[in-house]
Every structure is written in C-alpha cells, then in structure tokens.
Amino acid sequence: MTNPVWVIDDDRSIRWVFEKALAREGIAHRTFENARQALERLGEETPQVVLSDIRMPGTSGLEFMKQLHARLPSTPVIIMTAYSDLESAVQAFQGGAFEYLPKPFDVDHAVELVRRAIEESRRPAGAAAEEPAAPEILGQASAMQEVFRAIGRLAQSQATVLITGESGTGKELVARALHRHSPRAGREFVAINTAAIPKDLLESELFGHERGAFTGAQATRRGRFEQAEGGTLFLDEIGDMPPDLQTRLLRVLSDGHFYRVGGHTPLAANVRVIAATHQDLEARVRERLFRDDLYHRLNVIRLRLPALRERREDIPMLARHFLAKSARDLGVEGKRLGESALQFLAAREWPGNVRQLENVCHWVTVMAPGQVVDVNDLPPEVRAEGVEAVPSADDWRRALAREVAARLGRGESGIADALTREFETILIARALQHTGGRRIEAAGLLGIGRNTLTRKVQELKIDTPSQD
Questions:
Q1: Residue 268: what are its φ and ψ, rounded to 5°?
Q2: Span 346-372, pLDDT tens digits
Q3: Structural domains for the chain
Q4: Angle CA(341)–CA(347)–CA(351) in degrees, nearest 5?
Q5: Which of 152, 188, 201, 349 would you call most buried, defined as having the most Cβ atoms within 10 angstroms of its Cβ?
Q6: In angstroms, rounded to a whole number, what is the distance separating the alpha carbons of residues 13 and 52?
Q7: Three-state secondary-structure class, residue 464
C-alpha cells in the first residue's frame, strides 16, 4: 500500500478540505490537528508527503519539519501559512520545504503540488539550512508571494540574478535579501548605481585604480569588486552602463579576473553579481545600446518585481508600516489613515511605487494636522494626481441589487447562473487585461489555480491572448 499524505493543521476546515480533495483524487491520506500527534505516529507509519501549517499551538510546522527530516530526509514537506511574509517563505525553504503554500489557496493548485511532491518523494531532500535574520520586505499579494518564493529558492544559489521592475519597487531590498540569506552573508554587500556615477569615474569605482593611473590618482584605490570580495556586488541600473564598461564587466563575468585602472596584475573576483534595471534590456539590445553577450551573462535568473498598482491589496499594510516607521524615526506620535484616505491611496497608479508611498507617509507624519489622516490631509501633488473619482465599496453591490431586482421584475429565471457567468467573465477578462494576457500571473492575482482560469476562459469563451 502506498504511504499516505499527511495533513497537519489546527484548523478543522483546512483538514476537511484536504480530506475531500485527496479522497476525490484517490490519494491515501491522514490528518492531524497538531504536530505532536503526527510525531507520535511517525513511530508506526512513514508519510509519503506532508502538508503542515507553519504556526500551530505547541510544536510549529517548521520544528516538525526539522524533526521529520532528521529521521526521513527524503520526505517532501509543503508548508502552509496564513502569514504570508518573506521571513516565513525563507524559513520554509531554508528548512528544507518542498514548497510554500500561502492561505487562502486554490484547492486544485494544492492538489497539483501534492502530486508533484509525490513524484519527488523518492529523491533525497537537501539538508536544512540555518535561518538568518530576514530583511524587511512586506507583501501579502500573490505577486509578492512569487517574489518571496523566488528569494527562498535563490538564496543558497551562486547564480547571477537580474532583478527587473519599475523604479521604486524595492530592487535593492530584494538584492540584500538574497545576500543575507546566502552563504556569502558574512561578507560584504556592496551596491553601486551605475547611472548615478559619471562615465569617467565609473571604471575606477568598479575596478579601482593604481597610483598615478590618471591625474589626481595620488594613491592606489580598491574598487567595488575588491570591496565585495567573497560577498555580493549589486549593480543597480545596469541598463545605463556605458558600452566600454559593459565590455570590461563581461570579461570579469567570463573569466573571473579584472585589472585596476592603470594596473598590469590580474586580480581574481570571487563575487556574486546581482544586477537590476527598470529598463527593457531586450529593447536596448535590439537598439545596440546594450551588449547581447553581457545581457545573456546577466540574465541567468530573472526576478521581476511587481509595480505597486499590481499589488493594491498591500497598500494599507505598507502605509501602516511606513507611518509607524516615520513616527519612530522622528520621535513623534504615529498617524493613522482614515478609510477615505486608504481608498484614495489604493486607487492611485503610483508611478513611484513603494518608494513614493513611503515618501507620502513620511510627509503625512510631519505635515498632517490630526492623528487620523483624511484625503484632504494628503500632499497636494498626490491629490492633484489622484483618480477622477474614488468609488464607494458599496457601489457595485447597489448596482448588482438593482440588476437582480430588474430581472426579477421581468420574470426571468436562471438569474444566478446568468449573473455568475457575467461576473466571472468580467473578473477574468479584466485580470488578463491587467497582466497582458499572462495567465499564471492573472490566476495568482485572482487567487485561483491556473488550470481553473484556463477552464473558465474556455467555458466563458473569453477572447484574450495567452502570453504564457
């Protein structure tokens, strides 16, 4: 008999959902309401796959996974959590988790993960890693969960990473997270903005110079590559790097050596490079503004950060965090955003992304007159850039009630089915329009499985291009 899938969760409804879903799929399973019961059962039975909540009374999911892997290192563990943050994701992956499943989840997606874990169950699991402190990156939106998951996967890798995203999305924070959760964490993290340094000085900044290499070079100077030896070098705005320096960088990435300006002795570069840009590097390659071979050297692993408008549900949480941080930094009593202000901020496009939101919160902490911040207390330029109208949260409900009443008045039948189809059509079509047709991303934003979304597109005959 195949060993069962174990589900450990103190939430009875979660256990019930898995019992029904796994039984429907013909997958043997057993459920436990706490980790202690599961550990006691380990003496009698060996699970094939384990799904465990991360936070439970008594033994946590992470501690259970540690004890399980000490005895059964090849057993895949899927960690579930309603607390979707970077720390949880990194702890889960570095503890040896097979996957990280934020709640609420799509049941079809969860079953797919179980099936993948079953396929993986015969392969040996990696050893658990120690849990370093996590940097502060906030986000509960599906798009941010993908970022957290990627950081967890990439942290122990030595691969070059290219971080893309609009200005202000937090690319350096992610680079620092990758460094702090890597084997290089004990060495330096060195960051340089290649767009902020004049071309004539950038070469010396990166590679250093020998005494007398040029006018004003009165002493030998170590460059950023030497400063980052054994650690991580973060090259921000790499798309703006001058062509001749692109050639020198390519040479370092290719053979691991470089020369100081004016130097004749090659120096070894034991550095992990993480690059970032807000530009379309493919377009710059086509325009011959960026070297094709350097692009491919940097684009080993790409990590895209979502714009703030793609994760609007995170705005209240981020705003509260930034307001509290500003109050601590300034030594003043914290401000609180009123409901109208929150709705207004959530409806904006945020061209400056998270950095712009942080600046707004800092301004409000200093300038808003009361403790509760209204729309009129926001910076004038933010109000001027605001949306034409901020709809009430009840507007669509009132419109739906009027439509139901009108159809009932006309004596129609099958109203629920018809309206549900219209609702799902609008919901999915708008999500796909927002993501440019990328179904995996749209499904994540809607909180449903990719297979579910694909089936709905076919059933509802939604005419939209698929980009993935």
A1: -75, 145
A2: 888 899 999 999 999 999 998 887 678
A3: 5-131 (3.40.50.2300), 153-304 (3.40.50.300), 308-384 (1.10.8.60), 395-459 (1.10.10.60)
A4: 110
A5: 152
A6: 14
A7: coil
